[in-house]
Structure formats: C-alpha cells, structure tokens
Amino acid sequence: MELTVQQLTPDFCVAPQLTPDTMAALAAAGFKSVINNRPDFEGGPDQPTSEQVRVAAEAAGLVYHHLPVQGGYQSPEEIAAMRALLDAAPKPVLAFCRSGARSTKLFASAMQLDA
C-alpha cells in the first residue's frame, strides 16, 4: 500500500483520508502520533469513523487524536486545540483530512500561536 504523505516540517506531515488498514504502515514508517481532522461521515457512509481509525492506530502503537474541523473555517478554539496537540503529541506527527489541505491550514494557523 502506498501512502501519500506531504512533509511540512521534520516532525509534522499531512495526508489525505486514511483508513484503519493504513495505521500499521504509518507506525512502520516511524510516525508516533496521528491527528484526524475530519468529522465523522463528512464523506458519507463509506468514510471510516474516528473510532475505527483510533482502534487500528492504537493497535499499531500510535497515539491517536480526533480534532474534527470544517474545511472552510477553523475557530480560534480549534486552532488552539491543534497547537496543544502538536505541543504534547509524540513526534513525528501525521495529521489527515479529506485531502490534506485542511490539516495543512490548521497546522499553519496553530504554529502562529505563541507556545
């Protein structure tokens, strides 16, 4: 299985929608944490739920967080929550959403906050 991962910093990458069966490959690739920025069922009933991804991530030894945000707008509270996750999560971290763009925008906004 091929993973489409975009590295933004040495410790942070983004990816489009991931599935439970990709979690072991992420762990094998060296990731320590996964952040899911996609709301459940945003893509319809075929999209894996956060709970399904969490179970697989934890089984693979990954730390899992679900911070669902909308694609067009992330609130100051959501941005601050992302920053808190980034500061606390074991590195390297991979965040995902539908395409990777929302996680990229959320990361950029979170990194502008004072630690």
Automatic annotation (TrEMBL):
Name of protein: TIGR01244 family phosphatase
Residues covered by the Beta-lactamase hydrolase-like protein phosphatase-like domain: 6-108
Entries under InterPro entries matching the protein: BLH_phosphatase-like (IPR005939), Prot-tyrosine_phosphatase-like (IPR029021)
Biological source species: Roseateles chitinivorans
Gene3D superfamilies (alphabetical): Protein tyrosine phosphatase superfamily
Gene Ontology terms, MF aspect: hydrolase activity
Pfam families xrefs: BLH_phosphatase
